Amino acid sequence: MCFPRICRRNEPQNQPKYGDLMRRIHVIAAVIKNSDGQILIAKRPDSAHQGGLWEFPGGKLEPNESRFAALRRELQEELGIEAIQARPLIDIRHDYPDKSIRLDVWLVDRFSGTAHGAEGQPIRWVQSAELNQFEFPAANRPIVTAAQLPERYLITPDCDEQTLFRGLDQVRGKGITLIQLRQTQLQPKAYDALAQRVTQRYGDDFKWLLKGDVQPRVTDCGWHLNSAQLRRLWQQRAGGQKAQKPFSGLLAASCHNAEELSMAIALSVDFVTLSPVQSTASHPDAKPLGWEQAEQLITEVNLPVYLLGGLQPSHSARAFDIGAQGVAGINAFWPSDN
Ligand SMILES: Nc1nc2c([nH]c(=O)n2[C@@H]2O[C@H](COP(=O)(O)OP(=O)(O)OP(=O)(O)O)[C@@H](O)[C@H]2O)c(=O)[nH]1
Ligand SMILES: [Mg+2]
Questions:
Q1: Whose CA is nearest to atom 28 of ligand 1?
Q2: Do residues 75 and 111 make contact, with C-beta atoms less than 8 angstroms apart?
Q3: N or C: less crowded end of the chain, CB within 10 Å?
Q4: Predicted confidence (pLDDT) at residue 238 exceeds the cutoff of 90
Q5: What is the predicted ipTM?
């Protein structure tokens, strides 16, 4: 049997972080993945809080209960399964008008038993892309995104096209599914033409995010904003405080501090990179955040966060422990012999 790592966050964890008047209720919830990659969702009873909506199974932590013990108990009670392997996926804080919750969501990828609605609730196994067709409580938007995103985000190094294709051929089918096409040496026209060729060749293998001053002209690609573009769009947004997403596809932003993270939230981006966590050869003058500050910043945002800067795949476990979606990088994932 595999036990999860102990998380570094200090217990007890029901302490409100934002000075709430209402006590923040600590809820453990599970994104359960089966061997076909499907995810389990359940319908909340009509009479419950947020009744009639779909949810990720789980419930409130009991006094003095560890997070993993609570996860196991809830999955046993609600679905009749035993969680065998789990790790933190995303940790969010949400204020409903009538209650404040901390939704501490874990990814369960090994379990025993056959899940059934042990409390009479309807359950369904769905593909991650289908999650958007179901209605969840308002707090769940970042959870759905986190469930759909992988734990690694590859950023391509500047290189010629032949080298790029050779590297992509090598990482294909090896756990990389999300890629930012970064080619800083190319002018916009040449970059767009390359993006067309790359997506034609690898469209089904990877989800692409493109860089640029304007939203991608290549269909089905996401848009990754650098911090200057993030600021510009934030300044241009109409309607003051109201969140307005400036692009309907997958939208990401590069953030380096609390201010940029708050702009990303205001623009309703889907995920962010936070950098540099450690010193990195690609940005030698940037002062690293360090792990503690990265953790503090992640705790304040309800978004999937990829940590970036001087990291390796082996940093994933530490990234999960501080609430990150995973690790992003150029050198971390690009084949070294390419
Ligand atoms: N389990 C779960 N709760 C969620 C989700 N999203 C969300 O806002 N919540 C809220 O988190 C709280 C969790 O409550 P729960 O009703 O599952 O708690 P529980 O299993 O311990 O049941 P209980 O109400 O009988 O004590 C509710 O206020 C619920 O509205 C979700 O995806 N899963
Ligand atoms: Mg429950």
A1: 49
A2: yes
A3: N
A4: no
A5: 0.95
